[in-house]
Design a protein that fits this description.
Layout (H helix, E strand, L loop, with lengths): L20 H12 L3 E4 L11 E9 L2 E12 L16 H7 L4 E6 L5 H14 L2 E5 L1 H8 L3 H10 L1 H10 L29 E9 L6 E11 L2 H13 L4 E6 H4 L2 H16 L3 E2 L1 H18 L5 H6 L11
Parallel strand pairs: 3-4, 4-5, 7-9
Antiparallel strand pairs: 1-2, 2-3, 6-7, 6-8
Helix pairs in contact: 1-5, 5-6
Bound molecules: zinc ion (ZN).
């Protein structure tokens, strides 16, 4: 599904003073892709050219320079594709501006008629062409931190929504939060790794009440979980285990539920062994950045780093 809404970039033909934004975006994007800008957006009649850029191709016989004529078409507001009527006299325009190849930079897509024409130029006149359409632009932008920061400037609303839908740990501590599997040392806070947190509890004689939390361990689901169960059973065959998916504890409501449950346990008779208590604190602290928001620059200045939390252990 499309992430970036190109309608966030003002329409080109409106005299808002922002009518050049799409061309500035194109210029910045092409620079980011490695093209060298030869001529920049210019207000007024463009003679069928919005930008001229150079591509430096490094080959066996040295560098070949390809001069691209860039045509920017911002039709996101109307939603139409770019047709041959909109994109006329391509070959003449290339000749007039002494360019080798044609580059379309479109906030929608080229129509099939235009693609057919461009294919024709390629086979009959040996004229190269390339189209950056909305999908390709988006894919390049969201693939690197530099691209993402450009997306944030040109598509602020889409960016905020995208960030909410693909949450990343908040930048709170100096170091990355980390929970490594107690059996195989795999980082369980990486999205693709399926981890669980298990607590091992000693019950009273009729198994009606938890007396003490003996161990808190985080492990990969499956074989690491089995290995840990065997280890702990050897230490104490009477312990009962209960577990939760780590990813579930990163849900804000679930997280606070856990904090409250721990408070309640401490207030009642249930005790934690020293090891279990140390681990549950470590677990909650390292999960926290996945629950929380980023710090503002001002807040960051007031917090030194993770070392501030050391006294709690
Ligand atoms: Zn493991």
């Amino acid at each position: 599904m499309a992430v970036l809404d190109f309608k966030e970039i003002p329409e080109a033909h409106l005299a808002t003073g922002l009518q050049d934004t799409f061309e500035f975006f194109a210029r910045e994007f092409l620079e980011f892709m490695g093209f060298k800008i030869i001529s920049s957006p210019d207000r007024g009649a463009d003679g069928g050219v919005d930008l001229i850029v150079e591509e430096h191709r490094h080959g066996i016989r040295g560098v070949t320079i390809v001069k691209w004529l860039v045509s920017c078409k911002h039709k996101a507001h109307s939603g139409g594709s770019v047709t041959p009527t909109v994109e006329q006299n391509i070959i003449d325009r290339l000749r007039t501006h002494n360019c080798d190849a044609f580059l379309g930079f479109y906030s929608t897509i080229p129509s099939s008629g235009l693609t057919t024409n461009l294919e024709g130029f390629r086979s009959n006149s040996n004229v190269e062409y390339f189209i950056y359409d909305k999908e390709l632009i988006e894919r390049h932008l969201l693939n690197s931190s530099e691209g993402i920061s450009m997306a944030r400037r040109f598509f602020p609303l889409s960016y905020v929504e995208w960030e909410q839908e693909s949450p990343k740990p908040a930048l709170i501590f100096d170091g990355e939060p980390s929970l490594k599997c107690h059996v195989c040392n795999t980082e369980l806070l990486e999205k693709e790794n399926d981890g669980i947190v298990v607590s091992w509890e000693a019950m009273n004689s009729d198994y009606s009440k938890v007396m003490q939390i003996e161990y808190v361990k985080w492990v990969c689901k499956g074989s690491c979980d089995d290995t840990m169960r065997n280890r702990i059973r050897r230490l104490n065959p009477h312990l009962i285990d209960s577990w939760e998916d780590i990813v579930d504890v990163t849900i804000p409501v679930k997280y606070i539920e856990w904090v409250m449950a721990i408070f309640n346990e401490l207030h009642r008779e249930t005790k934690y062994s020293d090891e279990a208590f140390r681990n549950i604190k470590k677990f909650m602290i390292n999960i926290f950045p996945h629950v929380s928001r980023h710090l503002t620059t001002e807040e960051k200045a007031r917090m030194k780093d993770l070392a501030m939390l050391e006294p709690w252990f």
